[in-house]
Amino acid sequence: MPRDASHATLFPEIGMFLELPYPSQGIGLVSPPFAAASTPLGFANELAVQFDQSPTEIAVLTSTGVQIMRRRRLVDIFASLARYGGDAEGRDGQVKKFIRNYGRTETAATALAVACGEASDGNADARITNITEPDIVDFAREAFITQGGKPMLNENSVLDNNTPAIDNVRPSPRHDGMALYITRLVRSIWRAPVLTQKTTPVGGLVVTSTVALTKLQNIQRALNSLQEFLNKNKSSIEGLSGPESLGRVANKQDELSLQGEHRAMNALIQLISSIIEGIAFVLVLFDEKVDEIVLSLPEGSRERARQLTYEGLFCSPDGRNLAKELVKAIVNRNIANGSNVDTVAEALRRRCGSFCSADDVVIFKAQEQVKRASEAGPTSEASRRLLNESLRLFQKVAGSLSMEHLEWAVSQYIPMSFYAGAIQLALTVAHESDRANRALSWLRDDCPEDDPRQKAFEGRKQCYDLIHQVIVSLEQTAEANPDGAFSVTAKRQSEAYEIINNSEDEVFQNNLYDWYMGQGWNDRLLEISSPYVISYLRRRMDKNPDHADLLWRYYAHHNNFLEAASVQLLLAKSGFELNLEQRIGYLSRARTNASIRTVSLLDTAQGRQQLLREITDLLEVGNIQDDILQRMKSDTRLTEQRRPQVLKALDGQILEVAELFNQYADQAGYYDICILIYHCADHRNPADIQSTWQLLIEQVHQEAENSDQMRPFEAVALKVRSLGQRLHAAEATFPIPILLPMLLRYALEYQNNAASPMWVMDTFLELDIRPSALVPVIEQMYYTNEQPFVGRHRRILAADLIYLVQAWLRESERHGDSVLFGSDDSAAGIDELLTSLAGSQDLDAANQQAVDILRGRIAQAMR
């Protein structure tokens, strides 16, 4: 019938009249009623089902018999072109006419079907057979190759420079025809479920194939023919011929078009392989007892199996993963029934290799070894050999070992006390999952958020979590069986921790230490001799004081006292929420550690002294701040609102000396602390120091008079002694030429009737200040008639001089000096002083007698 020009895409139909030799008696439909779809849309799409349904057949009853009339499919019509089309030129004309009627895509699909043996015809015996005649197949092959058209690059659609130009290539009609042919082969099963599950009246499960197995075999056979055809002719088919075809392109546009064609054709090749293997897997599955296999799956996988379609099996990762689970169930069932795993796995590999790879076979073998070890008994020697062999096999395929397989292996190893093997396997799988060590670089970069490397770390962490489970089980077993250091349990424990501590996986070591800290097993890190402990703690110490505290303990435990002191100094100076007492404690221990001398190539005297100096200086400031803090706690001048603010500011980080002086000590009138700050800051202004000492003495005197707990002179003496000890009687801040006259004037003015008239001298002598340093000061006061020591008050200075000379003499004798007072000059000077005192009117009878005795002893010693 003529084609309507307004409907260029409609396929024409051609009819003919058949003349029967005899009158017909009846007519009827032999084949099922035709219906390409159950809905009006697509109901008459005969081309779509020409490989899926048998052609329509009509029986005509005549007086001589039954005449069968069979409707020819388009593929059969195309095959007849080769048979009845005449010579080569006539055939070419028929092909061009076919193209005009049906288009290049349909022509390519039909030619491909004929080339793959899908066309059929009746023979002399009235039987329908597939057409495989070489000349017809070659004709179809040539038509598919030469009339398939060319790919096109649509440059008008290239709008975004970020989109690759190859994405705008429209594949050739040859590609579309090939896709159309594949679609028609699998259309009837594409969305069909793989399994149909029914429940028997007694509650059992019956699993059957939704699609007849014979139909699956026919589809597989057709796809195998297609795959064979493509492999045989790929050098002639544009898009499959490989890189050499690029040498024939004329310009860049043709090159891009050819690359796009190759990509599209290669995708179809992969789809064909996937469908073939998927059908092969289904056929293998239904060769087994599917009911038992499905029941052996977890509940979630069983539901996924019920919903699995052929489309999901062929194209989706989830479907292929489920297929691998079913393969695993098939293998496990055969192993349980006593079958050899090699035989079963090899059969699976041969029929559906992508669902059962070489690595899968090794995994199955390893699982078989584990099961045999379990049957042999966990304590037997044979069991250990089998477990070691399973570990070797698992490690061999660690790169493709799924988390499910790893979890299964670890769960089997633990009850058999194969702790070392479980740990080693988990470490190997973690390493193989991240061979580029992206997790380590992420860790060293301080674990940035939303970083693609974090995924690698999370994958490794799953393996490490299994190791944590092994350690917990190991510890529980060790606690339940305290049989001594030479027991089997102790041996297994030693093996496991040897692998853990000797592992060079830094990511694992960091994860393990984090887990130890989370479990409260901080002290375990002290026993580990590994550089990873130090790097781990140093990386964490800036964020957590517990890690910093553990780091200095680790250094001290391993006799690296200088580094321990450095960490303690950092802790004392850190911004962590530490109170002042804790910071002073760290500094005190740091000073002790820095003072310990060890033999080390890295330990230099200069560095040690510099560190010790810094620690000592900061400790001194910390002690001063603590003094201020304790005073502030009980200072009644602070209001209840102000007190918490002051205490919070002081009970934390160690402040600068200037801030302590200006903001607290000086304003609060803590003169003793001000003097300590002078010493700490090396402040040497005599006027400031003298005035502060004077204010301090007056303050202490006044407080003692108000409290009645201690006599004022005793309180002043006690304060001077305590400050002198803390200042180490430093010349700048404990100036004897200033302080001694000051105290003597105080004693004369306020404490003239003290119980101990020599309390001033005793105060200095108790600070281990030698009499030789005190005598010149008082001697000068005596000779210069310094106020108020004039007149009868000169006797006080004279008595002090005699008291000091006696103390000096006792000291000289105690030291065994060859010359009294240390030298002849000193002795002569003392003799001259005593002579001057003896000739004065400033001595009472007792002191006069003491002078005579001293002069006699000096004269005797100088002979």
- The number of distinct β-strands equals 9
What class, by secondary structure content?
mainly alpha
Strand order of the largest sheet: 1-2-3
- State the distance separating the first and last CA atoms: 160 Å
- How helix-rich are the residues, as a percent range? 55-70%
Q: Can you summarize the main beta sheet? A: 3 strands, antiparallel
Unreliably modeled segments: 1-9
As a whole number of angstroms, the C-alpha radius of gyration is 52 Å
Mean pLDDT: 85
The DSSP helix count reads 35
Strand fraction:
under 5%
Shape: rod-shaped
How would you describe the overall organization of this protein?
This protein is mostly helical and 863 residues long. 63% of the residues lie in helices and 4% in strands. It has a three-stranded antiparallel sheet, with no helix packed on it. A hairpin with a 5-residue loop joins strand 4 (120-122) and strand 5 (128-130). Helix 24 packs antiparallel against helix 25 (642-650). The longest helix has 34 residues, at 252-285. The protein is rod-shaped and about 180 Å long. It comes from Aureobasidium melanogenum. It is a peripheral membrane protein. Pfam families: Nucleoporin_C. InterPro entries: Nucleoporin_Nup133/Nup155_C, Nucleoporin_Nup155, Nucleoporin_Nup155_C_1, Nucleoporin_Nup155_C_2, Nucleoporin_Nup155_C_3.
